[in-house]
Amino acid sequence: MKRNLIGLMVAAVLAGACGGGQDDDRLTIAVIPKGTTHAFWQSIRAGAERAGQELDVGVIWRGPLREDDRASQISEVEGFITRGVSGIVLAPLDEVALALPVAEAQRQNIPVVIFDSGLKGGDYVSFVATDNRKGGALAADHVASRLNGKGKVILLRYAEGHDSTSQREEGFLEGLASHPGIEILSSNQYVGTDVEGAYNRSEAILSRYRDRDGSLAVDAIFCVNESSTFAVMRVLQDHGWAGKTRFVGFDASDSLVKGLAEGHIDALVVQDPVKMGYLGVKTMVSHLRGEPVEKRIDTGVNLATRENMKDPGIHALLQPDLSRGTP
After folding, report:
1. Assigned CATH for 132-270
2. b/e for 154-189, b at 16 or more Cβ within 10 A?
3. What is the pLDDT of residue 16?
């Protein structure tokens, strides 16, 4: 009797180790953002977890703290390949450096959905993202309109290797090209991935265009992501320039929405990160379940101003609901 009991216990342990239960067949999706600190990524996470809850799949959220830590993000991808997750949903912080790890996932039969920012090559199921070039063009149109087609403008770039922000930068420059009365004072300066570094670099750049009376001889500034927008807003506030030059940023956070309401920011180009995270996971699950998916999914982009920030659709993008449940 004792021997039979021991045998049953051993059999149960072996069955559990081999994964024979229904729960072991549950899909597990790894979601890897560029970083984890900005409000944008928390909105992505909320959308991804909503999809996981709705579709009854496991969602694991892991990524680097900083958006310039390529080695950390590569390590995350490699770790999930070793772990053998069902699929990976990745926002590559470098369009070239992450291509090899994604190709390796493909070789290991782990499909990858790319979101937010593009990747070189085609070793992925789908690309779920904003039309970032259109976002840059929206900013250009707004600047040109507010300046009546004449003025001096500065573009502050983000960081090299990021496809999403590069597309925004190029869309902005293309949009201004049809306005010969607008002079671009600077368009090749990168301010970097962290707020303090962006503050120092943008302050140094803008100080070159300071008049003798301390005013800023710049009519408009465009920043292409959340951290650089916040850094430049602080520079403008600290030097008494806020509200005296047209300032267009990208993405939303509580601080940036407050800046928009107070007139320190002229406009914000806003994505739909909750929708992006949701569709990233949903697209992966559809693929794993044998359903057809689109190669490119556009999650939308809009321009928020003081005039329209209270409109329900824009308000939802500026201050998204991060609670659980289907969007």
Report:
1. 3.40.50.2300
2. bbbbbbebbbbbbbbbebbbebbeebeebeebbeee
3. 36
